[in-house]
Amino acid sequence: MNKPPASSSARALLQATRPRTFLLAIASIICGNGLALSQLASSTSISGQNLVVFALTLWVALALQILSNLANDYGDGVKGTDSFRDANSPERMTAQGLLQPSQFKRLIFGWALITFVSGVALIAIGFDNLRDFLVFLGFGILAIIAAMAYTMGKRPYGYRAMGEVAVLIFFGWLAVLGSAYLQTGQFQSSHLLPATGCGGLAACVLFVNNMRDIYSDKEAGKITLAVLLGSKRMRMGYALLMLLSILCYLLYGVVYNSYSLLWLLALPLIVKHLAFIYSAKPIETPGFSTVTENSRVDTVLIGSQLKVIVKLTLIINLLFVLGIGLSHLF
After folding, report:
1. From the centroid of its chain, how far is CA 38?
2. In DSSP terms, which residues pair with 295 in a beta bridge?
3. Contacts of 259 (CB under 8 A, 6+ apart)
4. What span, in angstroms and rounded, lies between the C-alpha atoms of 310 and 24?
5. How many helices (H) and strands (E) does the chain have?
6. DSSP string computed for 118-182
7. Quick check: 57 and 179 in contact, CB under 8 A?
8. How far out from the chain centre does Cα 255 lie?
């Protein structure tokens, strides 16, 4: 087999990192730091170290996001799952031979090491006591393992309908609450609401991805939440997850800071997005491989909303944090 040109491999590697998903990491860190800096502004001034911690936290979150995306490409590729993808799914690097599995695996472990070192540098700067350092070191190691174990290894949790739960934990509770704690050294119970909302929105992104791939995943034996719910109920489950997520932001605004309700400006976009998901009509596909339904939901239409929900997640968090910031001016 001829090796792909170096330029093709470089483009393949860049695509394997899935840059469009970087907005999720950015959204969670903005949410956490927005909450923390608002808390600091009420009692003290914001220092240069706060800005350094913010920049490093953002970098570590992006590094973990890239690690997860690379591991996902590799894991699905070597397991043969990607061989069931149709033309509507994005290009897969490992499955299509654009990146050699052995080289790709070494690259993943090398990137995991870079991520680990970056995380250690972050918590060394952020904390001056051993207890917090060790606790966050443990969280960091857990996050790296979780990023790789989604589809890699013998028992990947992404094949057992646990992906959305992991995203809620790591993009919500750990990213938002952790980044806020790095800035303030304090845990605020009120922050649980936006942290859960942010994690829920990130889980919505994975849910849309899995709705798009429901039929190929089912054929490949990959059990995602969409596959578990089935094509008739998955959109109802998605709407519920979305509504619960934005309810968290709503409750925070009503109970703690009404200015944070600025995110409601995005409500028309949310309604339009959900309506678009529900407009995906069943398509008659008799004899579609091993799928038992007589018809399939139009996953092409659903897949087109993947970039929409990614941008919505960032917009909602930006407006939420902007509203919190405005509360200190009025």
Report:
1. 24
2. 284
3. 253, 323, 324, 326, 327, 330
4. 7
5. 14, 2
6. HHHHHHHHH--SHHHHHHHHHHHHHHHHHHHHTTSSSS-GGGBT-HHHHHIIIIIIIIIIHHHHH
7. yes
8. 27
CB atoms within 10 A of CB 240: 10
DSSP 8-state assignment for residue 88: T
Length of the chain: 330
User: What is the rounded distance in angstroms from the CA atom of residue 107 to the CA atom of residue 41?
Assistant: 42
Contact 85, 40 (CB under 8 A): no
Q: What is the number of alpha carbons within 13 Å of residue 202 lying toward its C-beta?
A: 32
Tokens of 268: 């028309």
Q: Assess contact for 123 and 136: CB atoms under 8 A.
A: yes
- Residue-by-residue pLDDT tens, the chain, 330 positions: 455 555 556 777 787 888 888 999 999 999 999 999 888 876 666 777 888 999 999 999 999 999 999 988 888 777 766 555 555 555 555 655 566 778 888 889 999 999 999 999 999 998 989 999 999 999 999 999 999 998 887 888 988 889 899 999 999 999 999 999 999 988 999 999 999 999 999 999 999 999 988 888 888 888 999 999 988 889 999 999 999 999 999 999 999 999 999 999 999 999 999 999 988 776 644 444 444 444 577 888 888 899 999 999 999 999 999 999 998 887
Neighbours of 49 (CB within 10 A): 11
